[in-house]
Amino acid sequence: MLSFTSTELNTWIASFLWPLTRILGLVSVAPLFGNVSVPARVKLGLGVMLAMVIAPTVPAVSAMAPMSLQGLLILVQQLVIGLSMGFAMRTVFAGIEMAGEISSMTMGLGFATFYDPQSRGHSSAISQFLALLTLMIYLATDLHLVLLSTLAQSFSSLPISTGALSSAGFLQVVSWGARIFSAGVQLSLPIVAALLITNMALGILTRAAPQLNIFGIGFPITIGVGFSMIAVTLPYLATPIGHVLHEGIDAIQQITALMAPKAN
User: Fold this and answer.
1) How far apart are CA 188 and CA 102, in angstroms?
2) What's the CA gap between 126 and 193, in Å, rounded?
3) Cβ(129)–Cβ(97) under 8 Å?
4) Alpha-carbon gap, residue 129 to 99, rounded angstroms
5) Torsion sign (Cα): 187, 193, 194, 195
6) Hey, how many other C-beta atoms are within 10 angstroms of the C-beta on 191?
7) Do residues 241 and 114 make contact, with C-beta atoms less than 8 angstroms apart?
8) How many structural domains comprise the chain?
9) pTM for this entry
10) Hey, which bits of 48-180 come out as E strands?
11) Is the pLDDT higher at 53 or at 7?
12) Cβ count near 218 (within 10 Å)
């Protein structure tokens, strides 16, 4: 007759529940997986499927009741780890979307906004275009699979334990957030530089011919130059966007390594 103790039952539940919590934390935030258009049942099913594959490879955890105070603290800890990893990858997409916002405002298309289902807000047309382009590069280079592989490896670099997480990992998450602004400025710099030269030329033209209606010709010229620069730079955007996406994977590995509890 099959029999097992309550300790064994708690160990089995905890060995599946705790990895599932970290996985669901990443799936709920990470690009593509965490999109609001993806049904919650699909996200939950994906998390359970990944947990069934990853949980047997996770190092053994100490036997304790999952619903005890210490077990709930570990549950919250795993959720924070998963959210931090997903946030690191989401930061890359936010930086690229910011590049689109900067380009749109410089071109004079700041009013052309649409509803963004990812952020549940309104973003510019150029921003959404770059976000879709980034998502295509993200899928074409299999970085969504690399992200899941990094998640599986995180259980070795940052195993499930009762120790408190190191504050260095959270500091790295905050520092990585600054990449939104630097990536946004770097990717939009060619368009901003071309439009700056265009505006300077229009300013000189206005001084030379004061009777010229600058508002009548300036707006279509800046929009035309902006779209021309997007068309020129578009074939070369795959390299810098891919580089920033790989930086996001590296940031996840650094965060998990720095979060590891310090040995006493």
Assistant:
1) 7
2) 17
3) no
4) 11
5) positive
6) 25
7) no
8) 1
9) 0.85
10) 113-116, 121-124
11) 53
12) 18
User: Cα angle at 88 between 190 and 121, to 5 degrees?
Assistant: 70
Close Cβ partners of 6 (under 8 Å, ≥ 6 residues apart): none
Q: Which of 77, 56, 55, 74 is nearest to 66 (CA)?
A: 74
pLDDT in tens, 152-207: 999 888 888 877 788 888 888 888 888 889 999 999 999 999 999 988 888 888 88
| Tokens 């992200």, located at residue | 147
Instruction: Report how far residue 126's alpha carbon sits from residue 129's, in angstroms, rounded to the nearest whole number.
Output: 5
In-domain check, residue 173:
yes
CA distance 20 to 8: 19
Q: Range of 208's domain? A: 6-259
Q: Is 1 within a domain?
A: no
Q: For residues 131 and 96, is the Cβ–Cβ distance under 8 A? A: yes
Task: Provide the 3-class DSSP secondary structure of residue 254.
Answer: helix
In a domain, 129, yes or no: yes
* CA distances, 85 to each of 15, 60, 65, 66, 78 (Å): 20, 22, 26, 23, 11
Q: Indicate whether 264 belongs to any domain.
A: no
